[in-house]
């Protein structure tokens, strides 16, 4: 295929340069957005009298046919084309003749690619948000089922205080709701149209940038043409938001991996979302969770690629910026496959409530409640803390728990202890009396679920 820019040159580019320079192998996925941008551009050119309506009609018909042919597989992309923009323009010109050559009037590939990637990522953000919303709803459903499922809460990976599994799940729902907000913010800042910026300095043609922005459902045009072609903040911001999504999925994956181990055995994955060993027949491995954890580092690498690519670039466009696509496309593809696999893995897992409860019964996670029992009877908290710590030490030495420690031993350290201490340190009591906003009590978790669903509904509107 002859290069559109070949007039200035006296010899063909080296074949290795062609291969090195080509981007169609990865930017070809933006064909629909490239065509939609060209349709808006041609419409504006005709409305402004820059090209004839006859030529515009031929261009629009030709582009519509090309889009249909690409969608249906009747037209295959030419791997020798430099990029998706040149491929579509060359195909259009081959089909409709000279009218196709007028499409690129008042436009550069610089503002064209800046437009295409914004359009593409805008659609991808919408898909990612739908996947996150589905996962949040699954968390809400599971949390509703487990508002009474007692488990140990941890700090430093040591048993700390009794909570419920529903409470634990809603912590991840909270993280993912913040991710939805970040994606919405990224989409809002992204939603300005660079088309009309030209190569860097706009154009002498009487174009209407507001029209093209409106046709493509942008908030408006990018206000500075240099910034219009050289800005990739939106790629970096989106990749940063995706990195945080992956970080949250990775934290959750780590817990699932632990919970599936025999040392915890809080959860058992469905066979459809686990794998075995080639040599150890007893194994049931949480490979999905492990891959999510591993792919998080891959997305972090994509973010570092984008930041490093842009860190020293002078205005305006530089070919370095071609490297944006593979990085952001990889981040988008990775988070989508992770979310779409993680949600059914979690939804189909079997929660081993008895094991969670048994783990909560060990580790003296009701010690704080024992201290609170004393303070509610007038003992200063620091004295209550010391008394309870002494009781725990005694239990450890005598292979007892606070529940099995005789009342006489309690009363040796404080006469305010009475028979009702056993009710106060019951694990269910410990969890269900923590009714403070955000706590593990059933009514608190139900309020968190309702708030999460209300936020999902508001974001969907």
Q: What labels would you give this structure?
A:
Fumarase C, Chain B, domain 1; mainly alpha; elongated; 20 helices; Ribonucleotide Reductase Protein R1, domain 1; two-stranded antiparallel sheet; 461 residues; 3 domains; Fumarase C, Chain A, domain 2
| Computed structural class | mainly alpha
Placed side by side, the strands forming the largest sheet appear as 1-2
Topology-level CATH name of the largest domain: Fumarase C, Chain A, domain 2
The ordered string of helix (H) and strand (E) elements is HHHHHHHEEHHHHEHHEHHHHHHH
Query: Rg to the nearest angstrom?
Result: 30 Å
What is the CATH superfamily of the largest domain?
Answer: Fumarase/aspartase (Central domain)
- How many strand segments? 4
Shape: elongated
Overall mean pLDDT: 94
Low-confidence stretches: none
Distance N to C terminus? 47 Å
Estimated share of beta-strand residues:
under 5%
Total helical segments: 20
Q: Can you summarize the main beta sheet?
A: 2 strands, antiparallel
Please give the domain count: 3
CATH architectural arrangement of the largest domain: Up-down Bundle
The level-1 CATH class of the largest domain? Mainly Alpha
Helix content: 55-70%
Give a short synopsis of this structure.
This protein is mainly alpha-helical and 461 residues long.
Account of the protein in words:
The chain has 461 residues and is mainly alpha-helical. The protein contains 20 helices and 4 strands. It has a two-stranded antiparallel ribbon with strand order 1-2. The protein has a two-stranded antiparallel sheet with strand order 3-4. The model has no long low-confidence stretch (mean pLDDT 94). Helix 3 crosses helix 7 (109-145) and helix 12 (287-310) packs antiparallel against helix 13 (324-347). The chain folds into 3 domains: 20-105, Orthogonal Bundle (Fumarase C, Chain B, domain 1); 116-358, Fumarase C, Chain A, domain 2; 367-425, Fumarase/aspartase (C-terminal domain) (Ribonucleotide Reductase Protein R1, domain 1), CATH 1.10.40.30. The protein is elongated, with a radius of gyration of 30 Å.
């Amino acid at each position: 295929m002859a290069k559109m820019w070949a007039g200035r040159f006296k010899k063909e580019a080296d074949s290795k340069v062609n291969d090195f320079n080509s981007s169609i192998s990865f930017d070809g996925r933006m064909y629909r957005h490239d065509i939609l941008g060209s349709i808006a551009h041609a419409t504006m050119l005709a409305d402004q009298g820059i090209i004839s309506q006859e030529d515009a009609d031929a261009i629009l018909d030709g582009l519509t046919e090309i889009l249909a042919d690409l969608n249906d597989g009747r037209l295959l992309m030419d791997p020798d084309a430099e990029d998706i923009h040149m491929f579509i323009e060359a195909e259009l010109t081959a089909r409709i003749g000279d009218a196709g050559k007028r499409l690129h009037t008042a436009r550069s590939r610089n503002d064209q690619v800046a437009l295409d990637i914004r359009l593409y990522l805008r659609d991808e953000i919408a898909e990612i948000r739908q996947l996150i919303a589905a996962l949040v709803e699954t968390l809400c459903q599971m949390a509703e089922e487990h508002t009474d499922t007692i488990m140990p809460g941890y700090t430093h990976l040591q048993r700390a205080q009794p909570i419920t599994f529903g409470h634990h799940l809603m912590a991840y729902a909270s993280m993912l709701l913040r991710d939805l907000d970040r994606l919405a913010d990224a989409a809002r800042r992204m939603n300005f149209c660079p088309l009309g910026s030209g190569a860097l300095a706009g154009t002498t043609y009487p174009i209407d940038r507001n029209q093209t922005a409106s046709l493509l459902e942008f908030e408006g045009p990018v206000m500075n043409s240099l910034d219009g072609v050289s800005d990739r903040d939106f790629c970096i911001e989106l990749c940063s938001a995706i990195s945080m999504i992956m970080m949250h999925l990775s934290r959750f994956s780590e817990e699932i991996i632990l919970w599936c181990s025999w040392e915890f055995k809080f959860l058992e994955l469905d066979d459809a979302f686990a794998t075995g060993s080639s040599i150890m027949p007893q194994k049931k491995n949480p490979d999905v969770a492990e891959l999510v954890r591993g792919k998080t580092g891959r997305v972090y690498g994509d973010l570092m690629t984008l930041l490093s690519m842009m860190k020293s670039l002078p205005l305006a466009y530089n070919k370095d910026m071609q490297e944006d696509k593979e990085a952001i496309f990889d981040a988008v593809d990775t988070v989508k496959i992770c979310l779409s696999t993680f949600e059914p893995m979690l939804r189909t897992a079997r929660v081993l409530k008895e094991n969670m409860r048994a783990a909560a019964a060990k580790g003296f996670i009701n010690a704080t409640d024992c201290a609170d029992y004393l303070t509610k009877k007038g003992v200063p908290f620091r004295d209550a803390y010391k008394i309870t710590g002494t009781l725990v030490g005694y239990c450890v030495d005598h292979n007892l728990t606070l529940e099995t420690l005789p009342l006489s031993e309690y009363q040796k350290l404080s006469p305010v202890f009475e028979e009702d201490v056993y009710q106060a340190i019951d694990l269910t009591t410990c969890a269900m009396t923590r009714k403070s906003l955000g706590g593990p009590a059933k009514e608190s978790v139900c309020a968190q679920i309702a708030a999460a669903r209300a936020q999902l509904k508001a974001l969907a509107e």
